[in-house]
Amino acid sequence: MATPVLQVRNLTTRFKTERGVVTAVDNVSFEVAAGETLAIVGESGSGKSVTSMSILRLIPSPPGRIENGEILFDGKDLLKLNEDEMRAIRGDRIAMIFQDSMSSLNPSITIGKQIAEPITLHRNASWNEAYEKARDLLSMVQIPDAQSRLSVYPHQFSGGMRQRSMIAMALACQPKLIIADEPTTALDVTVQAQILDLLKDLTQKAQTSMILITHDMGVVARYADRVAVMYGGRIVEQGPAREIFNRPAHPYTQGLLASIPRIDSDPSQPLPAIEGMPPDLSALPVGCAFAPRCPKATRECEASRPALAKVSEGHLKACFNT
Fold this sequence. Notes:
four-stranded antiparallel sheet
């Protein structure tokens, strides 16, 4: 793999709640190379979004706390920077596209001003220069009549156009890394494809790395170079996307892939489902968190947690039995 832009090592993030301590991210490690798209996949509650928020140090404290690990970006450990230094990185070198554009955009500020603001902050540009750049960015994300749209408020845009505006804002300072957290939530299928195609195209042209957080394995197959599968706050499998899809090694990954409709499947037969529910992160079992739902689980799985082990070059899995 090329030189990593981001290296996450042994990251652990916990929250103190009324029900006890919740380990949302448990000893997670991965890398993202320059120009690469890494997809982090898993069911809701698996720790995907908390991982991304931890990278940008946006975990609310209290109740949350990053308790262990390193987050190396361009060789610097983000966990050792002060808040002013982190603020200089957010929106500039690392940008984030959040799940819900309506709640992420400020409803009382025009689209143009929201895109222009990080340009004035991080590039010391005048407002006139920043607005010109904002207009160009809106054109780049294929919003028609970009000049007049600068004065529009978020509620006057459709969901797809708001998401395009979020992409424009993320690209405003030409970041080295974009974190896209479920960037097509609540959009219809056609608009989803348009947004993801646009995001992939723009990041490839700018040689920007991307972390794509999703639960949609179809999206992963089309857009990701590598995949990290999360369950119960831990990475249970990771490797090249083609390898993961052709030779999934963990029963959880196998279950996710089996639940995807196939064009050659019998429409009269129900899709396979993973039985049971995701684990309670405040009361994780001693052994493998997936064991209660796993058809291949043994006593060893219930007694101890498997570490990530090599399946093939660049392909790792945390399972005793596959």
